[in-house]
Design brief:
By secondary structure, this protein is an all-alpha fold. The protein is built from 12 helices and no strands.
């Protein structure tokens, strides 16, 4: 299943802007291995509560731009924003398919940014190696810490090096962050 970890991390980045949790990474890697397709992951992520909480009631343009920000750390170019928003508006594609298409269609610096984010995200997940860390990486406060850490990564080697250097602290901070309503 490990061969699918990078794809799964990229999907977590696209949809949620965060590194995968340990059990989620394992589960979804196994699903792709069983089915030979990422479609189940795409459908599940775009139907999840975490996704709905982030995007419910938002415009197609907001959703498309959020995908670009999550994946590449930048706003969508106008042509891309318009193109993908229209695909959603016309019902030609659902959000899951748009996210996948943007992800696999990355070019140039966007590929580097996404690769850096996926590498860092895998390091984050790998560093959740205690029960307390695994149990603690849940809820809005924990996710917010991880999202902020991941968002700092772009196409530069320096941003990736910095993220890797601070991954232990990020995991610790995320897993010990508490939600006021938990």
């Amino acid at each position: 299943a490990t061969s699918y970890n990078t794809d799964i991390q990229k999907m977590y980045i696209a949809y949620f802007g965060r590194p995968a949790d340990v059990s989620g990474l394992t589960y979804w890697s196994e699903q792709i291995e069983k089915t030979g397709s990422a479609q189940a992951v795409i459908n599940a992520f775009s139907a999840s509560a975490e996704y709905s909480d982030a995007y419910a009631g938002k415009s197609n343009e907001f959703i498309v731009n959020s995908l670009y920000k999550n994946l590449f750390g930048r706003d969508a170019e106008v042509d891309g924003l318009t193109y993908w928003s229209q695909k959603l508006l016309k019902g030609e594609l659902n959000v899951g398919n748009v996210a996948w298409a943007i992800m696999v269609g990355a070019q140039n610096e966007d590929i580097t940014a996404l690769t850096n984010k996926a590498t860092a995200a895998q390091s984050f997940t790998d560093n959740m190696d205690t029960t307390a860390e695994i149990l603690g990486y849940t809820g809005a406060a924990a996710v917010a810490v991880a999202k902020e850490w991941l968002a700092a990564i772009d196409s530069t080697e320096a941003s990736l090096d910095s993220a890797i250097a601070t991954v232990d602290t990020a995991v610790s901070d995320a897993s010990s962050a508490t939600d006021p309503d938990a």
